[in-house]
Amino acid sequence: MNLDSGTQPQWLTASRQRIYSISRTGYPDESSESGGVFAFQRSKHSHPPRPPLRLLSAGSSNGEGGVHCDVSKTGKAFAAANIEASTIAIYPVADDGSIGEATYREQYHLDKPGPGSNDSQIEAFPHQTQFDPTGRFLFVCARGADRLYIYSVPSPHQVTQLQEIVLPPGTGPRHAAFGVFNATNTYMYLVGELDNTIRVYTISYGNEPSKLTVELHQTISTLGPGLPPTEPNSEYLAADIVITDDGKFAYASSRGTTSLDSDTVAIYAIDDEASPEHHLTYLDSIETQGKIPRHLALSPDAESRYLAVLNEYTNDVVVFERDVETGLMKELKGTLHFGDPVYEARYGPSCILWR
């Protein structure tokens, strides 16, 4: 156990032998509402044993409500999203893995609130800062603004906003994931939290950053086959998406808010040889055996054999074994309980990494 990760840690990401995290608030102390960003070194086996994580650095997330972080492919840039402050920040990462002072910061503003219920769109509310597979571009999902912001980040000292993709009102973009199928075939999968969709885009890279093109081809429901996007009434809220390493299957979690019944994970087949309009096919769904599946994580083996589902409200992680041929689940392998159910946002587990 490590307690050096601030108040209400929200997200984890790994780069080589280092772990990075972001906290919701309380940095540098409880008198502050800013989140914190933290870098850790994984310890090697030793005698006597050492703590598994050693703190390298701690700093401000540059805003209230740290909710997501990511590290570029080179390991030299770190990005943070602060949902309550509606800010993002980009930082340099030193050779020793420590995070430096922010070199870029942006705050988003709305002209007027969006149609999402329960104050879900009264501010821009950026929910994810995600580097693309090349590590040269940063994608920011702004749930409240119904926007996807794209930045060129050749280094943390050179940041340029390239595009602002406008989504239908009430989409609520939350998380994006990427699939690379060959040198010229990259897809992005964008989760609409409020309208319970996945939007499928192709990404084309030109010979300079300004030539990047992102094209929408398919919109598919997270709630069932053939269903249209929902109204943004918060009855169901899509959460996370993961893609298997072989590029054959996708999994997306959904959170029901009107009952305590188990939530679901939707299962999709991916066909990278079909026309982009038919790239995803809804196969089935499984119950998560818990409530509010905020995060999904596939095991790091070549077959992505196991799917871990983190249930925030029921305070547990559930692990399923996948059938790697069909994409469906073979069996429930186990459940790890962290304590009593909490049934309240921010206080249950929010992110998991496989070792």
Question: What does this molecule look like?
Answer:
This protein is an all-beta fold and 355 residues long. It folds into two domains: 1-166, 7 Propeller (Methylamine Dehydrogenase, Chain H), CATH 2.130.10.10; 169-354, YVTN repeat-like/Quinoprotein amine dehydrogenase (Methylamine Dehydrogenase, Chain H), CATH 2.130.10. Helices cover 0% and strands 52% of the residues. It is built from no helices and 24 strands. It has strands at 7-15, 18-25, 34-42, 53-64, 66-71, 77-82, 87-92, 104-107, 126-131, 137-142, 147-155, 158-166, 173-182, 185-192, 197-204, 213-221, 236-243, 249-256, 264-270, 280-287, 293-298, 306-311, 316-322, 329-337. The chain has a four-stranded antiparallel sheet, with no helix packed on it. Strand 14 and strand 15 (197-204) form a beta hairpin. The radius of gyration is 19 Å and the shape is globular. The model has no long low-confidence stretch (mean pLDDT 96). Residues 41-62 are annotated as: Disordered. Pfam families: Lactonase (PF10282). GO terms for molecular function: 6-phosphogluconolactonase activity. This is 6-phosphogluconolactonase.
Question: What is the compact description of this entry?
Answer:
The protein is mostly beta strands. 0% of the residues lie in helices and 52% in strands. It has no helices and 24 strands.
Low-confidence stretches: none
Question: What is the CATH top level name of the largest domain?
Answer: Mainly Beta
Structural class: mainly beta
Instruction: Give the integer mean of the pLDDT values.
Output: 96
Sequence of strands across the biggest β-sheet: 1-2-3-4
